[in-house]
Write a structure and sequence with these properties.
By secondary structure, the protein is α/β, with parallel strands linked by helices. The protein has a domain of 211 residues: TIM Barrel. The chain contains eight helices and eleven strands. It has an eight-stranded parallel barrel with strand order 1-2-4-5-7-9-10-11, surrounded by five helices. Helix 2 crosses helix 3 and helix 4 runs parallel beside helix 6.
């Protein structure tokens, strides 16, 4: 889970100096006669208390100073969703048909999503709102790629650009994997450097994970099983503990039951918050029904709701979305 983010570490070096003191020689003018010695006083007699009984070994051991217990590790920072609702633009750079993010460069997208988040913040009561960019970094392909994975992977240099923009503008960044015929754990490992940043989170898209069905992405709706999700959770949990950062949000897109296989077996990992995104488009009634079925399911620790600017009929208003009380709102 790593990336080209810049880090600086400072080493503090402690030194101690020995200070020697010296006295200048005395001249005759400075010498003074010494006072006569005081008369000797006989010392007072010493009265000793009677010797105490020797304590038994158990009592003696109990009175010895015990070493201080090791300090407990400090608690991890709180989740971003404890006090905030997240609002993001989703997509791929320069490809508008894949989502709103692709209609803007990284900086413009960050500025615009902060403005949208401010609109939510003005209406959603005491809960704060933070903006985010939801970046597709591995894009499923209809034709088999040279490595056989049906997957086009964004360069680390391009991912790094979005990491730095998110840092500069104080927003979150979600890195989205469409998986294809690849292994979600290995794809996540490739992003370790970036995921070490406290503001960078992960999303997996089962729709395009189609290897188990033997078809190219786009020909069938794909799926992820509990073992695959748990392997990614374990990796993220180790990273969170090692880096001392807030829990990772793990977004799983879903709009059909079979997209997540045996979700009741998802591990409960304190360092990872499984966030189910209701990813379907269409009329408001169907979308809300899907949100209640998937994003509010027992296996969902957090809820997410996606809106499609060009495919929803119509696009729900901010007030209508706020009524759902979703933790994470995504605009595609």
């Amino acid at each position: 889970m790593r990336r080209l983010a810049r880090h600086a570490s400072l080493l503090a070096v402690l030194s101690s100096a020995l200070i020697a003191s010296s006295t200048a020689p005395l001249s005759a003018a400075t010498l003074q006669p010494l006072p006569p010695p005081a008369p000797e006083v006989p010392p007072a007699p010493v009265v000793s208390d009677p010797p105490a009984e020797e304590p038994d070994p158990v009592t003696l051991a109990a009175t010895r100073a015990l070493p201080a217990p090791e300090a407990a590790p400090p608690p991890l920072p709180a989740s971003a969703l404890e006090t905030h609702q997240v609002v993001s633009y989703y997509g791929y750079p320069s490809v508008g048909v894949m989502g709103e993010l692709g209609l803007h460069d990284a900086v413009d997208a960050a500025v615009r999503i902060k403005q949208l988040a401010a609109e939510y913040d003005a209406l959603n009561g005491s809960r704060d709102t933070v903006g985010a960019l939801h970046l597709i970094v591995d894009v499923a392909q209809a034709n088999q790629t040279d490595d056989g994975l049906y997957l086009d992977k964004m360069s680390k240099q391009q991912i790094a650009e979005y990491v730095e923009v998110a840092r500069d503008y104080g927003i979150l960044l979600f890195l989205d994997l469409q998986i294809g015929w690849s292994d979600p754990l290995e794809d996540t490992r490739r992003l370790e450097w970036f995921l070490r940043e406290p503001f960078v989170h992960l999303a997996l898209d089962p729709e395009f994970a189609t290897e188990r069905f033997g078809y190219a992405p786009g020909l069938v709706i794909g799926a992820l099983d509990a073992d695959e999700v748990n392997a990614v959770q374990d990796f993220l949990a180790d990273l969170v503990v090692d880096a001392g950062i807030p829990p990772k949000l793990l977004v799983l897109h879903q709009f059909k039951p079979g997209m997540l296989i045996e979700p009741e077996r998802f591990d409960d990992v304190p360092e990872v918050e499984i966030t189910i995104d209701m990813d379907g488009f269409g009329g408001m009634g169907a979308k809300i029904s899907g949100f209640e079925r998937y994003a509010r399911a027992d296996y969902a620790e957090r809820s997410a709701f996606k809106l499609f600017y060009h495919w929803d009929l119509p696009v729900m208003s901010i007030e209508q979305v706020i009524d759902l009380d979703a933790d994470y709102v995504i605009y595609q």
